[in-house]
Amino acid sequence: MIHLLDKNIKSNFISIETGLKVHYLECNHKIKKHAPIALLLHGFPEISFSWRKILPLLSKEGFRVIAIDQRGYGKTLGGSKKYEDDIREYNLINLVSDLVSFLKEMNINNIDLLVGHDAGSIVAGAATLLRPDLFKSLVMMSAPFTGPLKSELSKNNIDIHSQLKELNPPRKHYQWYYSTKKANDDMHLSTKEKLAYFLRSYFHVKSADWEYNNPFELTSWTGNELEKLPEYYIMKLEDTMVDSVTKFFPKNSNCDWLNDDELNVYTNTFFENGFQSALNWYRCMTSENQNKELNVFQGKLINNFTLYISGEKDWGMYQKPGALNEMKNLCKYFKGIKIIKNAGHWVQQEKPEDVAKTILNFYSSFA
Fold first, then answer.
1. Span 270-305, pLDDT tens digits
2. Domain count of the fold of the chain
3. pTM for the complete prediction?
4. Per-residue pLDDT tens for 72-108?
5. Residues paired with residue 337 on neighbouring β-strands, in sequence order
6. Cβ-proximal residues to 11 (8 Å cutoff; 6+ apart), any chain
7. What is the CATH number of the domain that holds 176?
């Protein structure tokens, strides 16, 4: 992996009080004693390597930039990998506790710029809500954080799963599929070649390269509306995620933003680790109980400057109807929604220069 990184990016480990040995990447072009610090949080199925293009771009502008492998991901050690184990360690309170513990061990008093993508966006939002003293500004990417989580199962008293099953063909929601024991068995394929084929397909269909990504806002949390989402969100009932995406394997796999050597980093990581520890995040998100501790923060606003970034071809901003407005209402000092042209879900990998410029413009507006 190291040979694929900018020469100024270093790979390190540190043990923290929450029981992890955290792997992180750090970039410092010009080391300054009082340089602002940016912390970058990846999503699924990604790792700190996903920020390889952003790390040097922010560093060149004077930031000390750190990207971590979060609990259950990459080279970080300590997260449970068994379906049968207690998954509370993966709820939002504990994921935020990992960040707080990491900062303590790194002797970092606060983070000037917290950036999260996909599931990492949810953790970043929760961290800023819970510890605004530590996380001074927030950039969410792709997945809007809407505050203390309410069960989507009971949202508006709609049994969404029954509605999805009644569609023709019958469908299911990917997050609840990811919450089943079967999901890891399906995706943890028997050879690296098969896993690479799946991951290439997965990254492709959620990118701007897939011609069918033309997202629009949905009107309601109902089966008929969710059916409009791509199959990687609203799957056919009998399909695995492998089935859902490999049918769209790119005819030209020469991807300019994720070449084969870079894809191999993901392939090797998930072939070694499996997906279960990462999927435990989804099990907490879909659980009625795992994040109920956050309810004590109901009504509390994020009082730090906040920005939201999405690729124009990313369905992530629309997959939960109404989430963008809930996010804006949660953020007292919301600085807007920035759409990156010609980018999909992997916006920081597909268009790193545009993303870095957007982040830097946001930070300079108040720093």
1. 999 999 999 999 999 999 889 999 999 999 999 999
2. 1
3. 0.96
4. 999 999 999 999 999 999 999 999 999 999 999 999 9
5. 308
6. 1, 2, 5, 23, 24, 25
7. 3.40.50.1820
Instruction: Determine how β-strand 302-311 pairs with β-strand 234-236.
Output: unpaired
Classify burial at 168, counting beta carbons within 10 Å of its beta carbon; exposed 0-12, middle 13-18, buried 19 or more: exposed
| Domain range for 82 | 1-367
Is the CB of residue 315 less than 8 Å from the CB of residue 345?
yes
- What sign does the CA torsion over 133, 134, 138, 142 have? negative
Q: Residue 305, class by beta-carbon neighbours within 10 Å (0-12 exposed, 13-18 middle, 19+ buried)?
A: buried
Q: Given CA atoms 282, 161, 141, 313 in this order, what sign does their dihedral have?
A: positive
108: tokens are 């970092």
How many residues does the structure list for the chain? 367
Nearest to 287 by CA among 148, 176, 156: 176
